[in-house]
Amino acid sequence: MKSLTHFRVFIPIIILTFLIAQPAISQDKNEVAELKIQSSVVCGMCKTRVEKDLAFEKGVTYVNVDLKSKVVTVKYRTAKTEPDKIRKALTKIGYDADTLLADQKAYDKLPACCKKDAAPH
């Protein structure tokens, strides 16, 4: 009998705790952070390629390339991805990402105008 009484007391407490904690858990899933990555983008083709390809990365909600400063701005869901994964994805497209160098095979496939030594145009 004693254990049944404890059970009846603790069940509502457990349910209440879960209901109170649920909104906090939901907010973490929707948290969006911004990441700025210094890159080796050169031209409009680079901008189009990076914005299109990074948009398909899991958790990425926004991508913008500023050609003048060569900065890639990415907004992403923190529950879905992390900055290092986004940087790695950028290198796999063929561009440097902060201190990470571009994947050589991907870089070799870029058009000549998108190479690091190409003049801005």
Structural class: alpha+beta
For the CA atoms, what is the radius of gyration? 23 Å
Strand order in the largest sheet: 1-3-2
Helical proportion, percent range: 40-55%
Beta strand count: 3
- Unreliable spans: none
Query: What is the CATH architecture descriptor of the domain at 29-111?
Result: 2-Layer Sandwich
* SSE run: HEHEEHH
Assign an overall shape: elongated
**Which fold name is given in CATH as the topology of the domain at 29-111?**
Alpha-Beta Plaits
Description:
- The protein has 121 residues and is an alpha+beta fold.
- The protein has 4 helices and 3 strands.
- 47% of the residues lie in helices and 17% in strands.
- A hairpin with a 4-residue loop joins β2 and β3.
- The N and C termini lie far apart (82 Å).
- The chain is elongated.
- α2 crosses α3.
Q: Strands, helices and their partners?
A:
Elements: H1 2-29, E1 32-38, H2 44-55, E2 60-66, E3 71-77, H3 83-93, H4 104-109
Antiparallel strand pairs: 1-3, 2-3
Quick structural gist:
The protein has helices spanning 2-29, 44-55, 83-93, 104-109; strands at 32-38, 60-66, 71-77.
Keywords:
about 120 residues, Alpha-Beta Plaits, alpha+beta, elongated
